[in-house]
Design a protein that fits this description.
The protein is an alpha/beta fold. Helix content is 16%, strand content 31%. It has three domains: 92 residues, Elongation Factor Tu (Ef-tu), domain 3; 112 residues, 3-Layer(aba) Sandwich (Rossmann fold), CATH 3.40.50.80; 89 residues, Ubiquitin-like (UB roll). A six-stranded antiparallel sheet has the order 4-3-6-1-2-5, with helices on one face. A five-stranded parallel sheet has the order 9-8-7-10-11, sandwiched between helices. It binds FE2/S2 (inorganic) cluster.
Length: 324
């Protein structure tokens, strides 16, 4: 996986609890281009790597913008980032990856919950730049807590954005946005936000008659059913993973992930979210049947069975041969 050295160029407040970090190449050169919806992995420490969506326009070549909300109940990535990232700090990041691309459609409906605005703002800017038909709904708790609100309102997509504040009684639980109440052909829907928000929007949209293939999602945390296996997971059983390049096999017990077993034996693997939501650990499967537990791959990709997220997925067959 390609990594890049960047410098924190500027930091700005994006809401009462969110900050925007502008990253530029440490050598002053250009950064790799990216598609709207892409994210980068930020290396915050030896075993602390976190994915963050890029929220600037893909047309900008010299910088990446990430916006991070401090979550005091999370796993520590956002707290570390808010505490340690200062202007001038050198960072290692991955090259951008995109599991949440815009698709071909006559109209696009973008629905963000809270910090879920980050990829959707970049996507809205890309749609506005190409003159595409779209609307963006941003659901937040209050104007003070709305990440990137000022930038949204002053940007090209601003005139096609509708902002909702729950402290004013305007929540998605009171009803879907008008554009989602009746399914429309040739329309793509993109949803990003906290897990409960996304589960609600997707369930309501499907109940309204939208086809699942029209609904595109990006999660910041795994859905409950996609949690990694534990000793108490009745579906988890032991199996073997074999590394194609060396022929060595490793037993994966029911309470450990493939990634945990491989790293314990010194096998170099790529990891970021370790929750099945970023795709950093997608690994080729050369033989055997994966038991997919991630949120990254599409139904067709899962059915193909030729890649597996080794941070959380398991095996239906006694052995998996991995292209490592
Ligand atoms: S590390 Fe993110 S999907 Fe596995």
């Amino acid at each position: 996986m390609q990594t890049l050295d960047v410098i924190v160029h500027t930091i700005s407040l994006a809401s009462a609890t969110s900050r925007t970090y502008e990253l530029r190449a440490a050598d002053g050169g250009p950064l790799p281009s990216f598609e709207a919806g892409a994210h980068i992995d930020v290396h915050l420490g030896p075993s602390l790597v976190r994915p963050y969506s890029l929220c600037n326009s893909p047309r900008e070549k010299g910088r990446y913008l990430i916006c991070v909300r401090r979550d005091d109940t999370g796993r520590g990535g956002s707290r570390t980032l808010h505490r340690d990232l200062t202007v001038g700090r050198r960072l290692r990041i991955s090259a951008p990856r995109n599991h949440f691309p815009l698709v071909a459609a006559g109209h696009h409906v973008l629905v963000a919950g809270g910090i879920g605005i980050t990829p959707l703002l970049s996507m809205a800017e890309a749609l506005a730049a190409r003159g595409a038909s779209f609307v963006l709904h941003h659901y937040t708790s209050s104007a003070a807590e709305a990440p990137l609100l000022e930038r949204l309102q002053n940007s090209a997509p601003g005139e096609r954005a509708v902002v909702h504040h729950s402290d004013q009684g305007d929540t998605v639980r009171a009803g879907l946005p008008p554009e989602l109440q009746v399914p429309e052909p040739d329309t793509a829907v993109y949803v990003c936000g906290p897990d409960g928000f996304m589960t609600h929007v997707v369930a309501e949209a499907m109940a309204a008659g939208w086809h699942p293939g029209q609904l595109h999602t990006e999660r910041f945390a795994p859905a409950a059913q996609a949690a990694p296996a534990t000793a108490g997971d009745e579906m988890a059983t032991a199996f073997t993973v074999r590394i194609a390049s060396t022929g060595t096999g490793y037993r994966v017990p029911a309470d450990r992930t493939i990634a945990e077993v491989l790293t314990a034996h010194g096998v170099d693997v790529e990891l970021s979210c370790e929750q099945g939501i970023c795709g950093a650990c997608l690994t080729p499967v050369l033989a055997g049947e994966p038991d997919h537990r991630d949120e990254v791959q599409t139904p067709d990709e899962r059915a193909a069975g030729d890649r597996i997220t080794i941070c959380c997925s398991r095996a239906r067959s006694p052995e998996l041969l991995l292209g490592l």
